[in-house]
Design goal:
The complex is a heterodimer of chains A (262) and B (252). Chain A is an all-alpha fold and 262 residues long. In chain A, 79% of the residues lie in helices and 0% in strands. In chain A, helix 10 runs antiparallel to helix 12. Helices cover 83% and strands 0% of the residues of chain B. The relative contact order of chain B is 0.13. Chain B has a single domain, classed as MetI-like fold, CATH 1.10.3720.10. The chains are: A mainly alpha (262), B mainly alpha (252). At the A-B interface, helix 2, helix 5, helix 6, helix 10 and helix 11 of A face helix 1, helix 5, helix 6, helix 7 and helix 8 of B.
Chain lengths: 262, 252
Amino acid sequence: MTSDSVQADRGSIGAASAPPLRGLLPLAIGLLAWQFFGPRNVPYFPPPLEWLRALDALRISGSLWPAILTTMSSFAEALALSILIGSALGILLGRSETVDRMLGPSLEFWRTMPAGALVPVAVLILGYTESMTLFVVTLTSIWPILLNVRSAAQRISQDRLDTARVLHLSWFATQYKILVPSLVGSIQLGTQIAAPIVLIIVLLVEILTQGSGIGREISLAQSTFRSSTVFGLVILTGILGLGVNLLIGLAGSLLRNYATNV
Amino acid sequence: MYQRINLPGLTFMAGLVLLWEIFSRIVGARLETIPSVSKILVALYQIAIDGPLFSQLIHTLLVSIAGWLMACAVGLTIGLGIGIWRPVWRYSMASIDVLRSIPSISLISVALLFFGFSSKMEMVIVVYVSQWPVLLATAAAVGATPKSYLESAKSLRLSQRATVLKVRIPSALPSIVVGVRLALTLSIALAVVAEMVGNPAGLGFGIVYAQQAIQPAQAFAYLLVIGLVGWGLNLILMLVVERFMRNHAVSS
């Protein structure tokens, strides 16, 4: 069966097709109902417009944008590190069976380590520093990238590698012209899975250490029972998460074009 | 792979442990924050004998397993509904995509507002977050039953109910299993995180407590236990799934 006929044999819902936007209707109705018919006197149940007002108050007090900036720059740095280290390790493991067998059990154990458990330990060793955040976040979020790249590197067709040999490409050129383009898809897929994890762990570090960023603001608002601020910030993290997903999806489709054009 | 013992891999692991021991004895003696392996084991023994380790371990295990089972039930039910009826998918999927992109950790704060520092809060978070992969996998796989299968079901004059039970669910099973495995990983991770941030019980609380009391050896001991819990539960689930899939293999 070729891939085309598999596509044709798919049922009504293709995996690739994006859901239609009218699917947002229930969410919108729910929010409207919350706004207009929600309980008035329950302090933990503020209506949606209050969330926006609370966010605006935070912006006026001057702590909103710095918090977003801190969180997103930690996020971007950690994601970049995860992509670099994850794909490098993935290529290493995928191309060398010896290394794969040697590192296998150790990686297997680390991979199943519940995300987040590392944070307190890292705080103890490294203290409340920016490098601690990067270390923890990278260590917990490289796995999807590493595993995807590893399995893709194992499946690189021998023909492509033989072509490199026939053309007498140097080692560096082989990596750059054959290996990386063959793996771009898997790196993108891994990144798509890793990005939400990165955001979650960045926020967790900020909540636990009370250092800076959106996580700290959420934690502060929650401990002082400013519930509309909590809701506003939670929605803000949701929007950031959604935006990041869209960006990575976009980057992915651009990269896939490049990969098939090579 | 699982039958053969991976000797180089285990040697490498033992080598790492040995290196750590040597490193922490030479460098860690001055830093005092990196405990040696032997100190970690001693600390583990201490919290296991007169510490709260076992009650914490049982708490975390109970919450993550119970939460995982509930998440599977919820995810399967809703996922089936969305997968079978196309209009439901059309009018709900975008909302679901928006809802699930809210980072789980920030939802803990919302749950804390509603339920306070309690096990109820922990449970709600675990179930809410870990039902997403099951729901999504079920909805996508049940909705994408190959047309040829559905046509055979039609030519066999299977009823709607029989088509779902005998054709659509079995053909979706491999994807559902992937979702179920992801849900287990998530439920353990979320239970630990919820304990760290909110509910003062379980292994997550233990590790944060050790950190705040500046007890590196204890913190590492907890990390080891948490790692073993994650690894052990995953292994058990994988063995169960392997056996189950062998018995109920769909021949396509």
